[in-house]
Amino acid sequence: MSHMLHIKNMVCPRCVTAVYNVLKKIGIDYSNVQLGQVTLKEELTAKQENQLQTELNKLGFSLIGNRKSQLIERMKNLVIEKIFHSRQELNVKLTDYVGSEIGLDYKYLSSLFSSVESITFEQYVISQKIERVKELLIYDELSLKEIAHQLDYSSVAYLSNQFKKINGMAPTQFKKSALQNRKSLDNI
């Protein structure tokens, strides 16, 4: 019988590798490690759980104990995986996607998220999308139109307005500023 562990702040492929290494170091037998969760082959002893918590804390991760926290972390991980790590265009409404992946009513999940995180789930999704836009602007490989399409914005204008509301500057200003900073660092 397998047991599931939920881990907070595990948001990237390097995080998965780091957790693999911790599990091997401690000698914990697992069957799967993915963003935010580990499937164990057997239940942890108290000593193993303490060791795991200590090692995870050193890396900025932590075990999540209660069901509400686990659900919220799962919601965040689904959003991050879809926005930052998927090779496909974001052609799905994230609120619908998260509800269907978790298998619970979205209204319940949204209410739970807001009660714990003090922002709405929609605000969280927007902030993650804008962080991805910033990353893509700095990479300087896609036009703003291509970025808007990739992240499922209805128009460049809508993306630009949302970006400016959050960052206080237009995407083009941000890109120009980021590229200037990069060039000045190159001269050092």
UniProtKB/TrEMBL annotation:
Keyword flag Glycosyltransferase: no
Domain HTH araC/xylS-type: 73-177
SMART domains: HTH_ARAC (SM00342)
SUPFAM superfamilies: Homeodomain-like
Phosphoprotein found in the keyword field: no
Gene3D superfamilies: 3.30.70.100, Homeodomain-like
Entry protein name: AraC family transcriptional regulator
Keywords from the UniProt entry: DNA-binding, Transcription, Transcription regulation
